């Protein structure tokens, strides 16, 4: 959701077999690759972010970026750069964020990922970063590149397409292209309705749609539609709680759900839904404390 609507020490035992600069391969062994375990990287990153330990999260990503480089693991380096783009975007650190964008695009070319799903996901990350720092035309260029690739390689009900359309819509609203934004939001909802565990993302989309209605028509003229969107968003967000609904636990991480609740609460508050705002802010705090 748009930011204007609001009023984020590592132990050696966290890792397996760290690479040592003194143990590098000899000249001529450049083709040898020692891959990093991105699953483990992400699990630990999620833990740090759930606890809001951003310093540890940053050091964690820097550590594994170094490990990937030492191991000549370009794919791992590319994956870590993608996570850093999102991390620095959320932290509002523009220079660091776009340094990672440049490195990610360089690695994409080196890995020949320009027409791959991985490459498209990188374009989405880059576009989201560009939007966050007001580079709207650049953001739309990245999103359009991603859309061409996703349309070619993904099924129509893939959650990644839903995320892409939601991000495209946000940027269209920022450029006052409301008709295009509405079409993108509608498509995002259609896709995420078919995805198990898509309730939090649908709630986000509905709140973004409320913001778009206000931006285009004003609060008074758009009041009825805004209330309709917020009511539906409130119901969906409650329905997507993985701790209250165990059947969703395998597809919705509690830390992610807490982040969504925390992100949505200010928008409910902005429109006068004070009980909903408090409910989801308290839920985010409760889950975060449980994960700490």
Question: What are its keywords?
Answer:
292 residues; 0% strand; disordered N terminus
Instruction: Work out the helix count.
Output: 12
Characterize the overall form: globular
- Class derived from helix and strand content: mainly alpha
Query: Span between N and C termini?
Result: 26 Å
SSE pattern, N- to C-terminal: HHHHHHHHHHHH
Estimated share of beta-strand residues:
under 5%
Calculate Rg over CA atoms: 20 Å
| Number of DSSP-assigned strands | 0
Helix share bin: 55-70%
- Weakly predicted, low-confidence segments: 1-29
In round numbers, the mean pLDDT is: 90
Q: In this structure, how is the largest beta sheet organized?
A: none
Characterization of this structure:
This protein has 292 residues and is an all-alpha fold. The protein contains twelve helices and no strands. Mean pLDDT is 90; it is low at 1-29.
């Amino acid at each position: 959701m748009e930011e204007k609507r609001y009023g984020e020490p590592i132990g050696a035992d966290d890792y397996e077999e760290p690479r040592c600069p003194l143990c590098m391969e000899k000249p001529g062994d450049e083709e040898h690759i020692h891959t990093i375990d991105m699953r483990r990287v992400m699990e630990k990153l999620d833990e740090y972010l759930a606890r809001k330990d951003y310093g540890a999260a940053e050091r964690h990503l820097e550590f594994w970026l170094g490990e990937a480089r030492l191991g000549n693991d370009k794919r791992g380096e590319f994956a870590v750069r993608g996570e850093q783009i999102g991390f620095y975007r959320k932290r509002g650190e523009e220079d660091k964020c776009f340094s990672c964008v440049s490195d990610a695009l360089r690695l994409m070319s080196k890995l020949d990922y320009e027409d791959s799903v991985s490459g498209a996901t990188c374009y989405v990350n880059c576009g989201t970063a560009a939007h966050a720092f007001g580079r709207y035309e650049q953001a739309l260029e990245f999103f359009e590149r991603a859309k061409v690739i996703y349309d070619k390689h993904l099924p129509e009900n893939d959650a990644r397409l839903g995320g892409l359309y939601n991000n495209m819509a946000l940027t269209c609203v920022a450029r006052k292209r409301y008709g295009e934004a509405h079409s993108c939001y509608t498509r995002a909802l259609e896709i995420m309705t078919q995805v198990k565990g898509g309730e939090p993302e649908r709630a986000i989309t509905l709140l973004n749609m409320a913001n778009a209605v206000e931006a285009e028509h004003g609060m008074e003229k758009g009041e009825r539609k805004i209330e309709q969107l917020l009511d539906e968003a409130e119901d969906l967000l409650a329905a997507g709680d993985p701790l209250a609904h165990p059947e969703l636990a395998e597809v919705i991480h509690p830390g992610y759900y807490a982040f969504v609740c925390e992100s949505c609460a200010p928008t409910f508050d902005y429109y006068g839904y004070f009980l909903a705002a408090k409910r989801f802010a308290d839920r985010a705090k409760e889950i975060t404390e449980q994960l700490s």
